[in-house]
């Protein structure tokens, strides 16, 4: 029997008080899933289409748009339906990563690399797409080798930068890249102390006290992507999987009865109410864990079912608008039904990708 959400809060509050390249496929060859068969596919397509028609500030290759485009390509890979927006976005940005003055390896600036990797891996295997990403990571690896391991000083870096290190490291068979990734992760986890072993949750940064929903969503999603990329025998994998499982267990205990998670995971009275971006990222990660056989289906599938019902019936409107997205922040805060953002839509689309794999009738027909 599953613990009620409020009991999970009490348990965890007490704990705190105590102390290789995938073969590319042409977009046209991706089989489509008729929406009449799969409501998940229909929800994904509507959400992506609504954002490209009505979203704001769609041009930059920043972390917000990068998160959307990773989700947007997940729609194509899941449903076979494309709004043909991600390739033009990448082309317009010349497949370059942003540059923050004085911060040559800012993790948020590397988020677009994941979208470029998806374009390259699944649709357009053209080397120029990855040229700037490879150059940036090579320079960062050199810096890490010199002892600079503190670049991932906030939890969102685990989603913005870590997956690209894993994928490029495996693709290029670069032990140096994977070793640098491990050093950066260990600094974030242990030296900076962002991961709390008692709760199984992450703080946003070294000065944060609360356990923020979207911050933990970034961590779970990042680990999910890294675990997908690394070979089963990679020596770094066990620690990533341990943290992933510990997070998933905690999250299963503190889920709200309505399927969402609060923005402050261990304080349901702080900015109480639905929030969809953290909920989407948790749904993505936990659903993948079930699909991959690393999380127990009997315990975790009800968590995913409740979360997806909340996301698809309350966060998403009938026209595809995805609301209750907490605005850009670095900690818990309020989210209204009218709040939306590129990263919230992208996270919703990623959740749908994994939920579709769990849903009867949503498997793509044979090509």
UniProtKB/TrEMBL annotation:
N-terminal signal peptide: 1-28
A Gene Ontology biological process term: carbohydrate metabolic process
Gene Ontology MF term list: hydrolase activity
Keyword 4Fe-4S annotated: no
Keywords per UniProt: Hydrolase, Signal
Gene3D superfamilies reported in the protein's UniProt record: 1.50.10.10
Any Pfam family matching the protein: Glyco_hydro_88
PANTHER family: UNSATURATED RHAMNOGALACTURONAN HYDROLASE (EUROFUNG)
Protein name: Rhamnogalacturonyl hydrolase YesR
Protein source organism: Amycolatopsis saalfeldensis
């Amino acid at each position: 029997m599953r613990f009620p959400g409020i009991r999970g809060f009490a348990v965890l509050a007490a704990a705190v008080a105590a102390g290789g390249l995938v073969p590319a496929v042409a977009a046209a060859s991706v089989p489509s899933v008729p929406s009449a068969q799969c409501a998940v596919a229909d929800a994904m397509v509507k959400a992506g289409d609504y954002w490209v028609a009505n979203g704001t500030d769609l041009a930059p290759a920043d972390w917000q748009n990068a998160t959307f485009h990773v989700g947007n390509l997940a729609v194509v890979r899941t449903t076979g339906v494309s709004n043909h927006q991600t390739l033009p976005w990448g082309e317009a940005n010349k497949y370059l990563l942003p540059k923050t003055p004085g911060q040559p390896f800012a993790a948020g600036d590397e988020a677009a690399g994941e979208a470029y990797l998806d374009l390259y891996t699944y649709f357009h295997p053209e080397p120029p797409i990855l040229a700037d990403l490879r150059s940036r990571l090579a320079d960062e690896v050199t810096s890490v080798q010199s002892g600079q391991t503190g670049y991932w000083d906030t939890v969102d870096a685990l989603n913005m930068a870590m997956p690209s290190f894993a994928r490029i490291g495996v693709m290029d068979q670069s032990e140096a890249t994977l070793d640098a990734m491990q050093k950066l992760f260990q600094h974030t986890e242990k030296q900076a102390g962002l991961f709390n072993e008692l709760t199984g949750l992450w703080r946003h940064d070294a000065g944060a006290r609360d356990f923020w929903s979207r911050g933990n969503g970034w961590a779970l999603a990042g680990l999910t992507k890294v675990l997908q990329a690394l070979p089963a025998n990679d020596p770094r994998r066990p620690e990533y999987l341990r943290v992933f499982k510990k997070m998933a267990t905690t999250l299963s205990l503190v889920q709200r009865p309505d399927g969402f998670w609060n923005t402050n995971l261990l304080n349901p009275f702080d900015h109480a109410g639905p929030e969809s971006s953290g909920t989407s990222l948790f749904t993505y990660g936990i659903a993948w864990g079930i699909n991959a056989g690393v999380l127990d289906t009997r315990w975790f599938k009800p968590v995913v079912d409740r979360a997806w019902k909340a996301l698809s019936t309350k966060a998403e409107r009938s026209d595809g608008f995805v609301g209750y997205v907490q605005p850009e922040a670095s900690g818990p805060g309020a989210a209204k039904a009218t709040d939306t953002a590129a990263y919230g839509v992208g996270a919703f689309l990623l959740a749908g990708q994994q939920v579709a794999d769990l849903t009867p009738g949503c498997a793509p027909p044979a090509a």
